[in-house]
Amino acid sequence: MTISERTTVAEIATAVPASVAVFHAHGIDFCCGGKRAVGDVCRDQGVAFTELTREIDAAASHTSPDHRDWQHAPLHALIDHIIETHHDRLRQDLPRLQAFAEKARRAHSSRTASFERLADILSELSADLLDHMRKEETVLFPAIRLLEAGDARQGTWISAPVNIMQEEHDRAGDLLAQLRRTADGYVPPEWACATVRALYQGLAQLEHEMHVHVHLENNILFPRALRSTAPSAGA
Question: In the predicted model, what is the mean pLDDT of residues 18-32?
């Protein structure tokens, strides 16, 4: 694609999946904040637009040949990928990270209050995400599968749960940002023990995985599903 300063971050991330790693490296939000023009984001982040596009072009030229084009893959395949790659991993990672956070709280709360706050935020995020994924897997995702299979009745109501899921994504993004601030950008202090280092590394990875996860839903799955409900979609 041709990238101009007016192109939104979400448009780039959707059309050039390899750009996701570049955005992540520069701390650029490509999921919940992806509607912003990349030129504005570059100015805010202090990144040269030409350098960013050069990095995106370089990343795209080295894309793995088995990379899936989720813009054109069947919706049910994208849903399966989201569940198997992101939902299932969250169900494994969140309890482990919470255990690390609780251990760090017990061991180091006398040294700094940040671990108290970190454990609380992570607990809140975990509860929200588990409930969020349950609603997607039992309500919205089955409706999208039926819509793809030709059940036009699903198109009369899915915009409401899509809006709710997007709002919950925004809330998760806020909690992730709070975690990053509380943990000083996931740079462990010099005195950090192995548990704290594992916690910070795990939280940084969680943030990255969540950004990709939300991007796939907000910028690809949901828009494609909603477009298929338009009157012209079946014409």
Answer: 84
